[in-house]
Write a structure and sequence with these properties.
The complex is a heterodimer. Chain A is mainly beta. Chain A is 0% helix and 58% strand. Classes of the chains: A mainly beta, B mainly beta.
């Protein structure tokens, strides 16, 4: 089955800096790559996603890039704010959906 | 109010007892999933179902069972064969058979004593 690896496991940045989280996947048939944000005690919520026929997608301060050849995709958050502090998960999907282990992002004011 | 509902939010059981976690959705989604979340290990797939009366094992299916008799419902039974059942369990649903956003329930925290 699909195997998704995510790095780093923890990331601490100063407010206003950028944050980058990277994921790799193993199944070349995966065609959908979402990113979820999970705040403490809450359910994961989708923040951005990308499909295999697209190389990059941007939504305000958040962007995702996909390299199908290398089988990796990344989340970029610019101008980070304290409210961006949370755990972020990447996932890869074909018929099912498998997640990375998560990245705990801390934005220091 | 549309959404995906898990109940109960907290569940306590004695070791050796089977327990069933409820997951209901009124989003008319075809696909449903069960994940287990442990600290530092992300979301691990237990079972998933793409259509009524059909389901597939995920990565950690041992000690768990599911059914999908109705489109809206995907209950998960944690059996006594599950060696370490204490965890946070998340149910999710999505419109299609892969390749679409998954919506999560609020989760059930199961504690086995």
């Amino acid at each position: 089955g699909e195997n998704v690896e995510q790095h780093p496991s923890t990331l601490s940045v100063q407010e206003g800096d950028s944050a980058v989280i990277k994921c790799t996947y193993s199944d070349s048939a995966s065609n959908y790559f979402p990113w979820y944000k999970q705040e403490l005690g809450k359910r994961p919520q989708l923040i951005i996603d990308i499909r295999s026929n697209v190389g990059e997608k941007k939504d305000q301060r958040i962007a995702v890039t996909l390299n199908k050849t290398a089988k990796h995709f990344s989340l970029h958050i610019t101008e980070t704010q304290p409210e961006d502090s949370a755990v972020y998960f990447c996932a890869a999907s074909r018929l099912d959906m498998r997640f990375g282990a998560g990245t705990r992002l801390t934005v220091k004011p | 109010d549309g959404g995906i509902t898990q109940s109960p939010k907290y569940l306590f059981r004695k070791e050796g007892q089977n327990v069933t976690l409820s997951c209901e959705q009124n989003l008319n989604h075809d696909a449903m999933y069960w994940y287990r979340q442990d600290p530092g290990q992300g979301l691990r797939l237990i079972y998933y179902s793409q259509i009524v009366n059909d389901f597939q094992k995920g990565d950690i299916a041992e000690g768990y069972s599911v059914s999908r008799e109705k489109k809206e419902s995907f209950p998960l039974t944690v059996t006594s064969a599950q060696k370490n059942p204490t965890a946070f369990y998340l149910c999710a649903s999505s419109p299609g058979q892969g390749g679409t956003e998954a919506f999560f329930g609020q989760g059930t925290r199961l504690t086995v004593v």
